[in-house]
Amino acid sequence: MIFDGHNDVLLKLMVNGGVDKAGSFVTGRDGHIDIPRANIGGFGGGFFALYVRSPLNGKSLDDKYDEMKQPQYDVPLPAPVPQADALPVIMEEIAILLHLQEMGALKICHTADDLRGCFASGQMAAIMHMEGAEAIDAELHTLDVLHAAGLRSLGPVWSRDTIFGYGVPFRFPSDGDIGDGLTEAGFRLVKRCNELGIMLDLSHLNEAGFWDIAKTTDAPLVATHSNVHAICSHARNLTDKQLAAIAESDGMVGLNFACAFLREDGQMDLDTPLDTMLRHLDYMIEKLGEDRVGLGSDFDGAWVPEAITDVAGLNNLRAAMRAHGYDEPLMRKLCHENWLRVLDKTWKE
Ligand SMILES: [Zn+2]
């Protein structure tokens, strides 16, 4: 069974008809994840992102990905999103997640025991994760309410600026050493997340923000969907120094399936062999150890290799991992046990 560090299916369900049409998750839909294909691919759930999309300004998502087919690129970050605009979007996405739970499609997990129960029964497990904290006010009242509603994981930024910090643009080649670290509100956000037992996600943060969290948090450092900078020098990927800090904190990294963060040439090219993913996994295992590596697909949020295509294609990834020599204990760690391990250490209840 694969438990996964990141997907954007809630956003996709919202823009494709909202709560009324969310039943397509159960019966079958376009995109990467639904129940029929999850059953085929052994997808046992993961982090379901609450995410506010920036206005596309007449461009399609394909246009954006076309920019990432240049040999070098630097896609400008969209403007910040005010809290008043973000909050209703997040509420609708949570309503969709609750609706999926009501339909019996998944269980929203609040504790490590909830996760263990799902892993044992085969029920799909969902962690309510927020990618970009635009919906949260500087006084953090919204954070407390969202925690009570089930929020257990939070990325302070999705690349574009928030009142808490600054992220990395979709830039290749580049490291993430771009701009300032956390704001004063950002430091308070980290401390409050520690108190509440909300996992902090370092994916999308710039380096200064990464190091600010590293020196402030009392929890393991986690990047839910990021790759190895030494292999693909994209701004979104983690340098050896960052990987060393994650290992030191006993945290973990989830392998992102997005072609542009996998390939040496940084291209959003679907013709990306599974071997490229194995190179990242080998490197992460070498730097982090077997207990600190997992998967973080970015399904329904990125272009993933043709060899996988959607959750049903996870069977191809598993087969490639086994053929590469990963034994069964290591497979279990990479596929779901490490996520449980790190959440057990991070969540409070
Ligand atoms: Zn992301």
Q: What this model shows, in words?
A:
Strand 9 (222-223), helix 11 (240-248) and strand 10 (252-255) form a beta-alpha-beta unit. The chain is globular. Helix 1 (9-15) crosses helix 6. The longest helix has 20 residues, at 83-102. The chain is α/β, with parallel strands linked by helices. The strands form 3 sheets. Strands 1, 2, 4, 5, 6 and 8 form a 6-stranded parallel beta sheet that branches. The protein contains 15 helices and 11 strands. Zinc ion (ZN) binds at residues 131, 158, 203-204, 225, 301.
Bound small molecules, by name, code or SMILES, are: zinc ion
Distance between the termini: 24 Å
Average pLDDT metric: 97
Alpha-beta classification: alpha/beta
Low-confidence stretches: none
From the structure provided, what is the oligomeric state, counting identical versus distinct chains?
Answer: single chain
Binned strand content:
5-15%
- Count of helix runs: 15
Say how many strands there are.
11
Series of H and E elements: EHHHHEHEHEHEHEEHEHEHEHHEHH
Helix percentage: 40-55%
Mind describing the biggest β-sheet? 6 strands, parallel
Topology (SSEs and partners):
Elements: E1 2-7, H1 9-15, H2 18-21, H3 24-27, H4 35-41, E2 43-50, H5 61-67, E3 73-75, H6 83-102, E4 107-108, H7 112-121, E5 125-131, H8 141-148, E6 151-155, E7 170-172, H9 184-196, E8 199-200, H10 207-216, E9 222-223, H11 240-248, E10 252-255, H12 259-262, H13 274-288, E11 293-295, H14 314-323, H15 328-346
Parallel strand pairs: 1-2, 2-5, 4-5, 5-6, 6-8, 9-10, 10-11
Antiparallel strand pairs: 3-7
Helix pairs in contact: 1-6
Bound molecules: zinc ion.
